[in-house]
C-alpha cells in the first residue's frame, strides 16, 4: 500500500513537471527543448528525458491504481515508472556535467545546473530558487518506491487477491482439489468429470454404487 501511495505522489509530480515545462515554454516563448540555445545533442537529450518523464508519470499512476486494486501487474508498472524517473534524472545530471566540462564551468559552484533536473524544479524552478541538495534528496522517493514495488511481499499482497476471486481455487486449497460446493451424483453409467469410468465384468450386473 505504501508503494501505491508513493507512486501516486511520484506520478502526479512527474506529470506536473511535464505540464509546467510546456506552460513555461509557451509563456516565455522559449525554443522547444532549448533548440538553438544549446548544442544539438543537449536538445535531443532533453527531448528524450521529457518523453521518459511523461511515460513514467503514466506508468506510476496506472501502477498505483493496479496496486490499490490488488492486481498482479501493479508492482511491475510502479517499478518501471520509478526506474524511468531515475533514468530521466541521471540523463539530466550527465548532461549538466558534460556541459560544465565542455565549457570549463566550475563544477563545485554549479551544482544546481547539474543536480537540479527534478520534477520539483520543473514545477517551481521558474519562480523559486530550489537548493540543489533539496533536488538531490527528492530522488530518494523514486528509489524507495522502486524498492517497495519489487519486494516479494508487495507482489504476494497483490497476487493473493486473485485467489479469492470467483473462478480461482480457494486460498489454501491445493490445485486439483475441488472447493466445497455441489457434489457429483453417484455413478450411473456415465463417467464423473475428471474421473475414469469403472469397468465391470460382462457376466456381472452393472455397478451403480459409489466409486
Describe the structure.
The chain is mainly alpha-helical and 211 residues long. Helix content is 58%, strand content 0%. Helix 1 runs antiparallel to helix 7 and helix 3 runs antiparallel to helix 7. The radius of gyration is 29 Å and the shape is elongated. The relative contact order is 0.12. Residues 168-179 have low confidence and may be disordered.
- Cα Rg: 29 Å
Spans with pLDDT under 50 lasting ≥5 residues? 168-179
Number of helices: 8
Give the N-to-C terminal Cα separation. Answer: 49 Å
Order of helices and strands: HHHHHHHH
Q: Percent of residues in helical segments?
A: 55-70%
Brief sketch in words of this structure:
By secondary structure, the chain is mainly α.
Secondary structure topology:
Elements: H1 2-27, H2 40-68, H3 74-102, H4 111-115, H5 119-124, H6 132-138, H7 140-150, H8 152-160
Amino acid at each position: 500500500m505504501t508503494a501505491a501511495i508513493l507512486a501516486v505522489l511520484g506520478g502526479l509530480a512527474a506529470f506536473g513537471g511535464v505540464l509546467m515545462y510546456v506552460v513555461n515554454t509557451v509563456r516565455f516563448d522559449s525554443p522547444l527543448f532549448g533548440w538553438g540555445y544549446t548544442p544539438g545533442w543537449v536538445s535531443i537529450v532533453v527531448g528524450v528525458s521529457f518523453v521518459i518523464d511523461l511515460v513514467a508519470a503514466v506508468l506510476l499512476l496506472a501502477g498505483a491504481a493496479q496496486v490499490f486494486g490488488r492486481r498482479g501487474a501493479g508492482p511491475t508498472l510502479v517499478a518501471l515508472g520509478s526506474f524511468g524517473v531515475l533514468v530521466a534524472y541521471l540523463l539530466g545530471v550527465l548532461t549538466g556535467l558534460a556541459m560544465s566540462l565542455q565549457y570549463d564551468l566550475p563544477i563545485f559552484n554549479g551544482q544546481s545546473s547539474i543536480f537540479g533536473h527534478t520534477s520539483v524544479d520543473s514545477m517551481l524552478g521558474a519562480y523559486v530558487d530550489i537548493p540543489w541538495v533539496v533536488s538531490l534528496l527528492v530522488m530518494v522517493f523514486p528509489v524507495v518506491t522502486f524498492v517497495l514495488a519489487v519486494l516479494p511481499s508487495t507482489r504476494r499482497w497483490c497476487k493473493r487477491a486473485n485467489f479469492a476471486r470467483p473462478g480461482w481455487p480457494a486460498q489454501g486449497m491445493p490445485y486439483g482439489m475441488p472447493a466445497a460446493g455441489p457434489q457429483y451424483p453417484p455413478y450411473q453409467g456415465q463417467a464423473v468429470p475428471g474421473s475414469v469410468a469403472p469397468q465391470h465384468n460382462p457376466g456381472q450386473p452393472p455397478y451403480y454404487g459409489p466409486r
